[in-house]
Amino acid sequence: MTSDLNISRRSMLAGVAGIVAAPMVLGAKRAAAKSDRIVISNYGGSYQDACVKAVFDPFTKETGIRVDNVPVPGLDKVRAMQLTRNVEIDIWLGVSAQCAAGSRLGLWEKLDSTLFDLQDLTIQPASDYVLYELVAQGICFDPKKYGPGKYPSDFAEFFDLKKYPGRRSLRKRPDSMLEVALLGDGVAPKDIYPLDLDRAFKALDRIKSNVVWAQTAPQPITLLQTGEVDFSIVQSNRAKATHDAGGGTPLDFSFKQTVTDALGLAILKGALNQDAAKKLIAYFLRPETLARFEDVVGAAPVSKKAATMLLPDARKWQPDLNSTNSLVVSADYWADNFEAVNRRYLEWLSN
Fold it and tell me: Furthest-apart CA pair in the chain: how many Å?
């Protein structure tokens, strides 16, 4: 486990290196206010439930500070809140590409590194956000409908409609999805960056008529369980949750080829409750908190100590970071390119 995370650390450090915050978009931020309530963005469904159970409720019990979840906004909405001085969210929780892009745009407050045990972290915090876990994204399917050899197990097979007919689901966001498209078109993981956008969109054109585009993270699982699609690109933690009590139809996940991404936390410039937000982020990165959280979620924590505490059932859902067949998302690429590529992606979706 430790060696896996060291590999990830190198990849992720490469991703965050060179990120320099742009000038502030705020003319003047709202005055910080002492509060017993924090608002954090979240992806909903089983992931949000795990956050509440393993992190937020214990944090509230320890500090008396309540944590309220709201859907993850786009970076454009974050910037709009700041420009209008109406910042309604204290902590932004999201994927590494958007953490890095938000940093580049100057959307986040600086984070004090003394909040963390740096010796324990396999991925060091950036100046204004911190990553807390690594999660695999891959192909999910219903094993009762598609047994061995009947489902696409890697991205080339996911893009092969002739051999594996059926409807697919992909997310309505460019980061990770364009990497999946290029891997599906035969690009080797070591050659993915910088992204060949023309080739990626050409690959997506091949399957576009068979794709249901998911707006939210839980939606691909729902689409599979209701039979609206046959195969989805999902995070492994979402597939894991279907095996829990109340998770609905149990789904399988192919680890043959994955795209691994990190999730992180940042405090919005202009957030009302910055002191309380810092307390929650520091609490989230404690080894015992991450271990409790990843026992539910099944991703890989960035804490070395937490990694040693995990239950066996959680470990089997973690990404294999030593696999040369798989890819780690480059936050560095997306810091520079997210806004332009996202515009092109949305335009392509609308045509």
Answer: 59
